[in-house]
Amino acid sequence: MCRSIKTLRPPYADSVTEADTRAAALQYVRKISGFRRPAAHNAEAFDKAVEAIAAATAELLDSLEVRGGAAR
């Protein structure tokens, strides 16, 4: 699906910023919705989805246990 979203956990990424998680979330929402930029009447739903997915991504990365080291 979103082949160009990079892996955001060690050992693939040494440090992950909030911008990294938001960029991945934005790319995911764009792919799922089929919109690069939503129309004005869909902008709020689009933005809410990006924020929810970014938050879920951060929570996931914070919760992962990677053998041989901390996840983040």
Task: Name its key features.
72 residues, single chain, 2 helices, two-stranded antiparallel sheet, mainly alpha
Describe the fold and architecture.
There is one protein chain. The chain has 72 residues and is mainly α. The protein has two helices and two strands; from the N terminus they run ααββ. The protein has helices spanning 18-33, 40-63, and strands at 65-66, 69-70. The chain has a two-stranded antiparallel ribbon. The two termini are 25 Å apart. 10% of the residues are buried. The model has no long low-confidence stretch (mean pLDDT 86).
Which percent range describes the beta-strand content?
5-15%
Number of helical regions = 2
Point out poorly predicted stretches.
none
Amount of helix: 55-70%
Helix/sheet category: mainly alpha
What is the string of helix and strand elements?
A: HHEE
Average pLDDT value? 86
Main sheet properties: 2 strands, antiparallel
Task: Please state how the strands of the largest beta sheet are arranged side by side.
Answer: 1-2
Gap between N and C termini? 25 Å
* 3D shape: elongated
| Radius of gyration of CA atoms, rounded to a whole number | 14 Å
